[in-house]
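Justification of resources, computational component.

The compute hours requested in this renewal are based largely on the per-chain cost of generating structure records like the one below. Each record pairs the submitted sequence with a full structure-token output. That output is archived, and it is also reused by downstream analysis tasks.
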Amino acid sequence: IYNRAREEHTIYWLDNNNKNALDMAITFYRRALESDSAYAKAYTGLGLAYFDKFQNSTYFDSTYMDSLLIFSDKALSYDDQLGGAYYLQGLYYRNNGDIHKALEKLDIALRYDPNYFLAFNEKSAILWFTLGRFKESIINLHQSFNRNRGAGLGSFYGYLGRSYCDIGIFDKAQYYYEE
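The structure output for this chain reads:
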């Protein structure tokens, strides 16, 4: 059931934020938890789905992201080494302005799951847009790119192309855009 939830969640990301797919993902995450209330990954999936669902509609509500901490804490109570739970905490802290705490949580996520490409991607965004540490950002973006072999890989070529273009390395930018 959890894998079906992940499939629907991926469809949401790839299909122009397909809201029906996101609703299906939430349904399947919930069913996974009904089958096994201690399945930590289902809590992190549900937390990320709620983040995706409510991010734009309730962004200015000061409590809209509390679910990230609630779900990550619940997941960590069953598996204290779950990278996805620390990733959720990283999202929470980034979006609440505590950049250093966000980076700390993302580093913990990567310590427990060194192949978690979303954590590298989030870290890259913080380094680029918030801290202006472009070289480190591109290194993390490459780490994310190298680990993402699933759906959505094409967009990572675009991210890399844009990053190199922004810092004036146009031959590399062109290469990634063409890919």
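The mean pLDDT is 90. DSSP finds ten helices and no strands in the chain.
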